[in-house]
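Hi team,

As requested, here is the filled-out complex form for the adenosine monophosphate run. I kept the field names the same as last time so the parser does not choke. Let me know if anything looks off before we queue the next batch.

— J.
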Amino acid sequence: MKIVHTASELHTLKLFDVGFVPTMGALHSGHLSLIKTARKTCKSVVMSIFVNPTQFGKNEDFGRYPRPIEDDKRMAEQAGADILFLPSVEVIYPGGTRFSTRVHVPALGRRLCGKSRPGHFDGVTSVVARLFALVSPQKAFFGEKDFQQLAILKKMVADLSLPVDVVGCPIIRESDGLAMSSRNRYLTPEERRSACRLSQALDGIRDAVKNGEVNTAVVIDNAKLFLEEDKAIRLDYLDICNEATLKSEKRISGQSRVFIAAFLGKTRLIDNKVLH
Ligand code: AMP
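And here is what came back:
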């Protein structure tokens, strides 16, 4: 695996048929599954690691976000990445983070996580657009773990006619159902035990829907009661939305997905599950 830091280093490699996996590092099996999927269909697999300052809010965890770079290099190589791109802030934002061009996707970015993290998705779309320009991938692989992010990036690529195919990949989970996340390493042992309730709450909703329930309020209220049994969990939102529009749905349809965000201590976790 080759490690590069700049756009000119990338260009001298003359890569073609590139599968791209952008990340913020602190890699886990969820990230590695994206490399493995890219490996199946693309000649060259490029992973980037960049903790993007513009997608963090003022009081969020940018400063303490985990950066275990030596472990990440080893894991990316073992999973089959050809190139690891480690840009600096100056490479991504040559004009500085405050004065660089921003990409904004309206509507979709205001719902769900957009409400509690204003500006977050503008940071995501801006960095991914810049990374796409530097890496020139044919395909880019993103996890459904961040389903709203995936929907917003698909919209950005469609609206701007960017020549890249955005591929969504399934959520990889721990054995107790907790969706893998770099932020899981913040959890205390007690919080970690409580955290599996988030996916259990989603499973409860999915099972109720399988058994014929179509009323959103009924399944959400039951799930909230289940979550409230554990005082370590502070719910941010729990909602059933249309997968395409991310708008809340009162009646569960063939396009519904359930979304959750909750705090365990200071750590904010998200998850989602398809309901059809
Ligand atoms: P991050 O490093 O958190 O920005 O994530 C980088 C990419 O990995 C994004 O496309 C995420 O959706 C994806 N990802 C993160 N966690 C998981 C997971 N548990 N399963 C699948 N993909 C994931």
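Two things worth flagging: The mean pLDDT is 98. The pocket of adenosine monophosphate is lined by residues 23-24, 30-31, 33-34, 142-143, 145-146, 169, 171-172, 179-182 (CB under 6 Å).

Thanks,
J.
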